[in-house]
Amino acid sequence: MKYGYFDEKNREYVIDRCDVPVSFTNYLGLENMCTVISHNSGGYSFKGSPEYGRITRFRPNGVPLDRPGHYVYLRDDETGKYWTVSWQPVGIDLKEAEYVCRHGLSYSKFECKYNGIIAEKTLFVPLGHDVELWDVKVTNTSDRKRAISLFSYVEFSLHQIDLDNKDFQMGLYASGSSCTEGVIDYTFFYHPDMHHFMTADFEPDSYDCVRDEFIGNYRSESNPAAVENGRCSNSSKLGGNHCGSLHKQFEIEPGQTIRAVLMLGAGGAEQGKKTRKMFADHSVVDKAFEQIKNYWRSRLANYQCITPDEGANVMLNTWTPYQAATCVTWSRFASFIEVGGRTGLGYRDTAQDTISSSYLQPDKVKQRLVELMRAQTSEGFGLHLFDPAMMDESGDAKANLPTVLLSGDSDQSVHIPELKDVCSDDALWLVAAVCEYLKETGDIDFLETEVTFADEGSATVYEHLKKALDFSAKHVADNGICQGLRADWNDCINLRGGQSSMVTFMHYWALRLFNEVAAYLNRDDDSERYSEIASRIKQAAAANLWDGQWYLRGFTAEGRKIGTDEDEEGKLFLNAQSWAVMSGLSEHDKAIRAMDAAYDKLFDRYGLHLLWPAYSKPDDGVGFVTRVYKGIKENASIFSHPNPWAIIAECMLGRGDRAFEYYTAMLPFYQNDMMEIRQAEPYSYCQFVMGKDHTDHGRARHPWLTGSAGWFYTAATKWILGVRPTFKGLEVDPCVPKDWDEFSIVRKWRGSTFNISVKNPDHVSKGVKSIKLNGQEITGLIPVQQPGTDNDVQVLMG
Amino acid sequence: MKYGYFDEKNREYVIDRCDVPVSFTNYLGLENMCTVISHNSGGYSFKGSPEYGRITRFRPNGVPLDRPGHYVYLRDDETGKYWTVSWQPVGIDLKEAEYVCRHGLSYSKFECKYNGIIAEKTLFVPLGHDVELWDVKVTNTSDRKRAISLFSYVEFSLHQIDLDNKDFQMGLYASGSSCTEGVIDYTFFYHPDMHHFMTADFEPDSYDCVRDEFIGNYRSESNPAAVENGRCSNSSKLGGNHCGSLHKQFEIEPGQTIRAVLMLGAGGAEQGKKTRKMFADHSVVDKAFEQIKNYWRSRLANYQCITPDEGANVMLNTWTPYQAATCVTWSRFASFIEVGGRTGLGYRDTAQDTISSSYLQPDKVKQRLVELMRAQTSEGFGLHLFDPAMMDESGDAKANLPTVLLSGDSDQSVHIPELKDVCSDDALWLVAAVCEYLKETGDIDFLETEVTFADEGSATVYEHLKKALDFSAKHVADNGICQGLRADWNDCINLRGGQSSMVTFMHYWALRLFNEVAAYLNRDDDSERYSEIASRIKQAAAANLWDGQWYLRGFTAEGRKIGTDEDEEGKLFLNAQSWAVMSGLSEHDKAIRAMDAAYDKLFDRYGLHLLWPAYSKPDDGVGFVTRVYKGIKENASIFSHPNPWAIIAECMLGRGDRAFEYYTAMLPFYQNDMMEIRQAEPYSYCQFVMGKDHTDHGRARHPWLTGSAGWFYTAATKWILGVRPTFKGLEVDPCVPKDWDEFSIVRKWRGSTFNISVKNPDHVSKGVKSIKLNGQEITGLIPVQQPGTDNDVQVLMG
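Above: the input entities. Below: the structure tokens describing the complete assembly.
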């Protein structure tokens, strides 16, 4: 069963059955303004922060799904019949009308055919402007002249989401609305500089700024009074709930198409008037849309591949990098899952997201890296959740709130947690994030940039990385294994004084990456020092972390083993195996045994489970993971994020068939036809898939959440297809299914293009016999080439 | 225009037009469990705390209004026609069906006539049980046998409201459901001790525990799939959204009535089974309902009056004390306005609410007083918002949350604000609250009870009062006027280092009340000390606070006058006048001039405006009040809470006609027929009425919010009708409209009953010529009488 398909030519996912039981979402906006929008045009906009820069309102987890949204209503003024260009909220019987939603890259397009009218609506945020454009076209396919009224509708939100959710004695009196010269101005009296607007390229026949006037008592977005009446009531008010509805009646001749452009933006009436004037010229709208298309066309051109696997091609050339880059730009807190209640960035996920997308958006990645370092303390650990604005002396801090601040709330200083509340892994991701950025861009000078710490002082980027490594080196137990603290990557493994094998392996991995930097810079003292730490870790791990058939996950504060065959539950953890291998720490034979155990015990058709068997009894020594239902999230679901780590580990072991089996098992593309099981959108990796211990086994939940897409992208492009930037050149080291004959990659790197063609006549998984660069045989790395050049690379596996 | 009427006999407000454009709400529950319910049966339940003890879900400020709720659907199984016993959510055309909602005291009853069926549903929480009973009766008024399916519906909520609102990656996986032996058990795996249940006295034919199975995709509570199908799908799940729907088909003979009792409760399946067994006996249900009726009958019997004014009688004998007592029990944070996002108690409002309701519920008031003192610091000030559980060493602290706590969130210790974040008035209300409790109950020993401070140490109640007075005495400026600090009673006047006349008058008032205690206890040293402070204040006020025609509201930190005729805006503030008089500080002639100015400039048909003229320009020296739209809330609305202070002041000045004019202007009863203006329910005082500078002038907003009902009650009963408990006896000192011939009061006080009859043959406003107690003329106070006695009191005014 499916709800849509991939339109490769247009890089769109096309939903042609709009009655999906969950939200299929997309992200509009690439700079300041963002809209999260569903296949039924439900969703919300914000500028800057979804917590305190909200523009439109959304009722998450609502009944019915995904209300309100950014809607266009059409009304046949002869018959009174009305509908929306998106299927919902009016929801015409799908037997009577055709609806399609096309989610493209940073735009979404809604099409409908009903009642002799074809209508479409394209939503996007043009580059350089804080405005969402609604490009609407209405075609009369009947044989008579038609009078069609068009109504826009958004519900404005108080800009601060907590007040908007629950304190109506302030929230409902803090904002006001007016409409002059065709511009609806939504204002906050207490905050004179903040306005939002809605306008259009037409002169409205009527308007409503007051939500409850537009909707009417005991009605909903499904049957608004204004649309039913064929006219808005020209309402506006100071205080109350506000909306943006502009109404215009169009007379449309048979065969004629009319076009209307609506604009939802940040800024006051003046800004609205300027914007209105600019985009009333439809060629400006067309050009702005073409810019968005070009934005992605040119960026995605930095990496394109043709492999024997259709799903891999579609996802790697478009959807996975789109997801990873979107997570870097908007983070997890802008979604339908976390709806702005938390703000800012998660340390570890942001760091990981940057790893995979520096080739797409190096400037954005660099900005995020600086923000991550500003959120690192001089002790070396990272602030688990943080708002970059709070560390940015040049930027705006949080906006004023429409209330007298409560005691304590006025404290906007950065909160530095105690050690027990620190996550043991956060800052270690920074090391890899910076290294990948350097290898991609060659921007070695970045290491000398001075960046402040969250608490006090500042240091160069290079020294920031050392602080992260030193923090982990300091917080080890007597056995040499890193302490788990509040949590490691797994938020629900809360060891406090206990020890984590995963963070120990991660520490080793980060040391290895750092040592490449130190070696490249000839910092011999650092090389020596951090190599020595790495070798101490290796010894400690060998002495303590092998359980006999696989690696342990760690120890509780009382010294009990976690992830041991001796236990009844939680015997085997995926991450302990994949990280032992991926970090380069494990000896080969143990690596093989550990990864085989993972395959045997954790894998099924949807991917690798996080642990086995699921916990059924609370055990606070291990952590919150034992308090989650079986098969859900951290308690033995098929968590997406760690699956690519296993792929990387298998590639390091040379087992390309298994690596690719893991890759395709979780590939959303291949679940497009089984939506009765998956449910979630098939163009986005989800946070997790329900595990075999749950009645909803196979159901995917939380699309767009960070970390997963980036690591799958890294695993597929750098380890399966095997082209990896290093400081000095491109490394080519594929690990593919044996039955692949060939594949090719176009890779732009440091300004030149590499057209890489890989042949596999001997049907091996790993091993490169020869590489020809522009016809010349080379050994080892492909050196950096003259910017602007096009280079032919012929690789022969065997 | 009206939506209902007062049914005096049943003490019910009857809504017979259910399409009210706002929520008319009621409160069920008197002990641990509470439900806030609307006239369309929308609303939510919680146990203990609306923030972290939530049971059912509610989408405040929603579209449509007030979803979801506690619903009973009926379905004609021959035709498939279905409806709800409350008008919404199905919302049958009101031309085709009759709907009535009766809000009674701690119960609400819904009635409908439709399709040959009369149905009613009574909701209440029986004393001694944490369960809401739904007593449903369905009568077949047609002439043929009918097959009617009944479905219950509630949507369960995650118990912690913040997660329920916005963190769906945790919230949607933390709870599960099952149904065994007719009991739906809603559980939190991470919190094994917390369950909620839904059950019924019947064996269900089918059930749904999963919300989205009951409702169906792209449907809503208006047209749930299960009801349309005539059967639930027996769904249950771990994770997801949960509901309580039990379905039963009844065959009903012509003229027959069937009865079904549904039960929504706190506790697990075992508790559900016990509850089910108990209330399956309908006589137990009847008895429990009778207990609720008796609860209020006996308590309200402590004060009943008959005056020439119908509105005063209805409100004073039933609705105003009901509102005041409800505010003491459930506080403001359980409402449709603040929906549990803030928890616990507001210091000043709780203190004030107790003032008016100790005759109704002395134990509850005593508990609140202790909680207020526990939230007082040893410095003397109160914590503006606090959760009593945090100061209660014996009680449960907040429940665990279904997430790993974020940095800093684990800190549940009491936060003591800095001086700049302290409200200057909070603790002063405590003095009056304790004094009124003592006068009502005679529980003088309470003064010797030892109570802890919020920060450290403990003291007797008597010493706590002194701390409050000392704090205000310490924080005065050089001119002897009290500092405003973060705010005084007016949250939006934020003077910080500036000074507040209101808090200065309040300090004087509290000193006067305390001195009565000290005198009664013969604590001469304290009497002397605090009398001296009072006289210093009087001098300072005389020297600094008179503006020439009225009293100033204070001074900004830079020394600018506030509330002066010299300004263009904010010339005159109500509270500065009423408190100058009510505190007893003002000289008589200034009192008259000040109160006349208030009458001239601030009064209109809906009551007294808070200030005049409204502010139009932000002035942060004055405070947030200048950042609110004109005519709304603190910026020159008709704020309810301060109106009774003006009534008390006028009574002290002997101007009974004006006092009563103020009283009736705001009396909700008299706005029952003008709901097109008032909108809000006419049985409850609202926080404010839109002022004359707003387009919605006259509209009342925020029913049930604390403070207002209590003070109106105090003003009417103690100052207009003029019977005031003192330490030694009842004082009789009415101040009534001159045209009143007579009125009578039944007052129970300290165990005996006083049947007080007041005659006013000379048509004066004030002045008592003679009092006869049981036939004997007395002078001065009516002494305490033997408990259990009935006493006749004849008062002659003149």
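Note for the figure: The longest helix of chain B spans residues 310-330.
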